[in-house]
Design a protein that fits this description.
alpha+beta, 16-stranded mixed beta sheet, about 20% strand
Length: about 450
């Protein structure tokens, strides 16, 4: 008899118990992960009601802080041990350093010119981590510049997220390896060495030069984000160059990520060298904060929540995607209802239609509570920023969505000095001139309402 005969005979008896057993194990794991209640319920519904889809999706994408993976990855150092206590000190959420110089890059042209200039001027080392390295003219140009530096004997390390830059390790990137540069991919999805890791993506953007200067922010490397000439199709974004002691924490973050990505080659995080305070006027105090499966708790989320809740007069948020958890949503509503000025600036139409549907009910709640919701109309808005009471400002790689706040490896920078706060404030004001107020139409079609409801139901899984 054929094997298929026995399978057809036995499966009706073994299939249901095996299915229930697997569902029980997955639900038990869900409860142990201490997720937000909405995320737990959403995954449970998918696993129970559509198991043939829900179980494989959870096994591949359901991981958050997977213990085996996080134990293999070095924890991000809170403060480099060789830093002087007067310049660099730990905070409850990250590392605060004094004596930095900042240079905000509000256009893609400035960002491109700065990146190319820093690559060309590097004398000892270049480290770049990016979520996306596009296979376009800009991506090729940057790789070409890196290859030229590698040929001169300068150490070049390029860290790409395996999903964000999926399939991008083609011949033009291999040119860098031939020149002596090193390329690693962060947490490849294939082979499935550890189920659930496809959900854990490195969304950090860091470029470090000679261990002294660094560029961070929301920009990936591609024509959508930067270029040598202005473009009406380019996304609006924000990044900045930092020079000073804050670079030490950025180096610590990169080293931990790099060592994890090339762990099969016995890579270890390198010692972080001291960086002197910048000598000059208008020095900046910066709090660098990493967040993700390699940190204790959710420091970036907790810091954002704390400054919102402590706001005395005003809160302004810029984000490309707005899918908050219940606490942030309620905090903004309470601030608006108690007379505080609360502004949310988002793109009128983002590059992810499902997130636009999912955000609709959140926006209606905010608008009804008195929050000024503005829709940016001059293309895609990809920048991220928060401004509170004109006394603290933030930018970085994280969006105000569940994935950035609770799942991804992210990086944020908080600023406390007038010059930096004013730069971010001016950027937000400039964006606001190209925005229109959010107005919810009284009549929504049944199809639209259903799509919004379903999108909000699955937002914990996005």
């Amino acid at each position: 008899m054929e094997i298929g005969y026995y399978v057809d005979t036995i499966w009706p008896y073994l299939g249901p118990p095996l299915g229930f057993g697997l569902a029980f194990l997955l639900i038990s794991r869900l409860m142990r992960e201490k997720r937000r209640p909405s995320a737990t319920v959403a995954w449970m519904l998918v696993i129970v009601w559509i198991p043939y889809i829900g179980v494989p999706l959870y096994l591949i994408f359901g991981g958050r802080k997977i213990s085996k993976l996080t134990r293999r990855k070095s924890r991000i150092n809170i403060a480099p041990p060789n830093a002087s206590s007067g310049t660099v000190k730990s905070s409850p959420f990250g590392v605060i350093s004094k004596g930095n110089r900042t240079e905000f890059q509000q256009t893609g042209v400035i960002a491109f010119e700065s990146l190319v200039r820093e690559i060309k001027q590097a004398r000892t080392s270049i480290e770049i981590a990016t979520f996306i390295l596009s296979h376009d003219a800009i991506g090729r140009h940057i790789v070409r510049e890196l290859s030229l530096q590698a040929k001169k004997g300068i150490e070049v390390r390029l860290l790409l997220d395996a999903v964000g830059s999926f399939g991008k390790k083609t011949l033009y990137i291999l040119e860098l390896e031939k020149a002596g540069g090193k390329i690693e991919r962060f947490m490849p999805v294939l082979p499935f060495a550890s189920l659930g890791k496809a959900n854990l993506r490195n969304h950090r953007k860091i470029a470090i030069f000679d261990n002294k200067r660094a560029i961070i922010g929301g920009r990936n490397i591609g024509s959508e984000y930067m270029g040598p000439a202005p473009s009406s199709k380019r996304w609006k974004d924000l990044s900045l160059l930092i020079e000073g002691p804050a670079v030490m924490q950025l180096s610590a973050t990169f080293e931990a990520d790099w060592a994890f990505a090339c762990r099969g080659k016995n890579c270890q995080p390198r010692e972080i060298k001291p960086v002197e305070e910048y000598r000059g006027p208008e020095l900046s105090t910066i709090e660098i904060m990493a967040s993700g499966p390699d940190t204790l708790g959710d420091p970036l989320y907790e810091k954002i929540l704390s400054i919102i809740q402590e706001a005395d007069t005003n809160v302004a948020i810029v984000t490309p995607y707005y899918i908050p958890d219940e606490v942030i949503q309620r905090s903004l509503i309470v601030k608006a209802r108690t007379g505080k000025s609360v502004k949310l600036l988002i793109p009128k139409k983002s590059n992810h239609p499902v997130t636009d549907l999912a955000r609709a009910s959140f926006l209606r709640e905010l608008s009804e509570a008195g929050v000024e919701v503005l829709l940016y109309t001059s293309g895609m808005l990809h920048g991220k920023a928060i401004l509170v009471d004109n006394t603290i400002a933030m930018t970085g790689s994280a969006n105000i969505d569940l994935r950035s706040l609770f799942v991804n490896y992210e990086l944020g920078a908080f600023f406390y000095d007038n010059g930096d706060i004013q730069a971010i404030s001016n950027w937000i004001q400039e964006l606001s001139t190209d925005a229109e107020p959010f107005h919810e139409s009284e009549k929504r079609s049944f199809l639209r309402s259903t799509a919004e409801d379903l999108s909000r139901l699955v937002t914990p899984l996005l």
